[in-house]
Amino acid sequence: MPYGLKKRKNKNRVTGLILSIILVAGICSGCGGEYADVSGDRAVSGRAVSGSGISGQAVSGGAVKSAGKDPSKKYTCCNEQNLYYVENGTPILVEHNRQSGEERRLCIKEISEICYVDADWLYYVTCSGDAAKNQDQIWRVPVRKEEEWRVDESAAEMILERNRRDGWDLYWCNGSYIVYSEPKDGGSTLKLYNIRKKQYEPCDDLGFGFLYVEELFEESVIISCDGGLMEKKLGSDTVNQIRDNEEESPITFYTSDVLNNEFFWLESGGSEKNHALWRYRLENGKKEKLFDLVQIRQMLKGWGVLGDCGCETAEGHEIHLEDLFIRGDHLYAQIQILGEQNVPQCHNMIVVSYKRDGSEAWEWEKEINEYLHNPEAHQKLFGKLTESGCEVRSIYRSRGSVVMMAENICLMYLEHTEEKKNQLAGYDFQTGTFKWLTKRDWEWWLPYYEWGMGLNTSGYSEHMPNNYD
User: Fold this and answer.
1) Do residues 352 and 319 make contact, with C-beta atoms less than 8 angstroms apart?
2) pTM for this one?
3) E strands present in 156-285
4) For residue 418, what are the β-bridge partners?
5) 85 touches 122 (CB < 8 A)
6) pLDDT digit string, tens, across residues 195-242
7) d(Cα 180, Cα 172) in Å, to the nearest integer?
């Protein structure tokens, strides 16, 4: 995807809790302790996630790449004390104690994935069958806090059993419900299983065609379907229409903050004024537009960002919202600015922030933008192939981009000019310090992208001012 955010978010998304814990703890232990640890008193829980997306306060756990000789290892869930993953291609569930570093390897027949962990239970899926029939079972095992938060595999209990068709095996769980999409009449339907009541709840009022689960909250599930974007209240007949498909601008991006009951999406239409970032608050059922790119363009002009790159006019710049990050009480939008097409194209990546309560206007993120800035002495004309196979000759005014944010850390992928390579770096919000991360940091802590295949550098290479990737 050359420009803009084209990926569709799904079940596998990175969120901030495990990064807040692991990035801070891992970087601290591996790089001289320059970063402060995470604090907070909210309950910790997590489910399997990977990809790019939100970060910030304690939210559901994220997938990260583990250190060691086996690059296939990945932690996929966490609770307050432990990290968990299923060893690739094996029936082994690994429980890693964050404090002691101890790892327990538990053999669980036909385990395929972990779908949720909280302070009391770990939920996992087993899969058996052949090409004609697949049998899924969802189990839970207690976490014994009195026994150093260890999983008690001897007390496993089956929660749900179902026959499934190939490809329909994505399960969402929040400890109260198991939610998934199932084929039906050339489309799909939503299935809501109440764990406490041990029964399915009716949900035939969500339209027709294919249905996709976008996020599971404590009391609601957000789905997209032919009828638009909807919120289905769990344990209730209530369905709220968030957005219908009659609106002009298609949705290209979803992300969410589970603990704060907020859901975000980006609309991208045929004209720039239709590009907008929206927020839906589950607690009151209200949606609001946080900004559109006409407003962003005016802000960039006011900051003098559009007129100092040698392009013909400020109006000639294309502006794309690349990503949204959530950290504490702030939103961070990463914006890519592309110069005139008639001259060697200039690329510039900048970050702006917004206080979530709306008490302040969007602000220029001075420190982060200073690290993203590529000094004029290093700005050169590079030819680079896009994913479509077309060569674009560009001058890069930025030396990389923000990958994600945790509670105290902004993680960036930047050109390291002295080392002549692209490298991961961290900026500490509390101390204001910047540090290049080592290859070991990268391999140990960097979240999985593209279903566990490591950092998809091709996704970042088009933003880099060199051909190192």
Assistant:
1) no
2) 0.77
3) 157-164, 172-173, 177-184, 187-194, 199-201, 212-216, 220-225, 228-233, 239-243, 251-257, 262-267, 276-281
4) none
5) no
6) 999 999 988 767 667 888 999 999 999 998 888 899 999 999 899 999
7) 6
